[in-house]
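Appendix B. Chain record.
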Amino acid sequence: MNDRKQHVIKMANQLFIDKGFQATSIQDILEYSGISKGTFYNYFTSKNELLMAVIKSAITERERHRDDLLVGQDPSDIEVFIKQVEFQLKLNRKTGFLSLYEEVLVSNDPEFKNYIERNKLKNILWIYSRFLDIFGEKAQPYLYDCAIMFMGILRENIKFNQMANPSNVSFNRVVRYSVRRIENMIKDVVISEEQLISPLQLEKLLPNWNNVNQSFQKQLHHLIFTIKKELRQSGQLTNQIDLLDFIEEELLDSKKPRKFLIQSAFDSLKSDDQLLANSHFKKLDCMLKEYFSDAESEPVKTP
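Structure tokens predicted for this chain:
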């Protein structure tokens, strides 16, 4: 993304926080960001598309900084997870992400809601992955259930703490309390061997985004998440991480993924010798080749 487009997204984000999405006009955005109407429509087809770009940018920044907290740390250390969750909450408040999120929920735009649902799944998968780091393989069959429960516990604890202490909410205290509760629950379900929702059942509850196979979505996200985590732990430059984010967004968020752009981004990644030797990157390469091979072999639909 070029710097000027990123500048417009940043300025729009601030306007949406200050005035609200509905109350902000395209003219407000033009004046505040210092661009012409022609430039705006060169970047975005509508204000709704700009809002989507603002939300995607906020989520990408949040995930990048959150995962940076793992660099050089022991993934099984529960204190690191607490810091990651606390960071997300603080950044959400600082950037006004939750107010933007609410704008999407009331917009009745199916593409927005589709994106939000997919992001919820990504968050569940991230929590599941971190729980797996912390609690190990023995707990794996129950960690999807526990990730869902943790999201609910954390959300409600934050909501009622903000109601009780509107000007003095301690995110650290709320997160630490919620993590300790879920820690005890995980120990309990491992002993009782109770599973409420299996991974397959979870996938069936979710919409079939962009007609992309849900198993493919989960595998793609897990591979890219793992590769990004390894890159950050090795101190790699963020350019590779940006390219991986682009590939995931293009495949899962676009109605018609642009193969030539995905291949161009992946070819750039292949110039990194360290990535070429990475086993997860090799799996991603095979996965993308198989995906595009299947897409090309699908019969053309006639009216």
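Further analysis of this model is presented in Appendix C.
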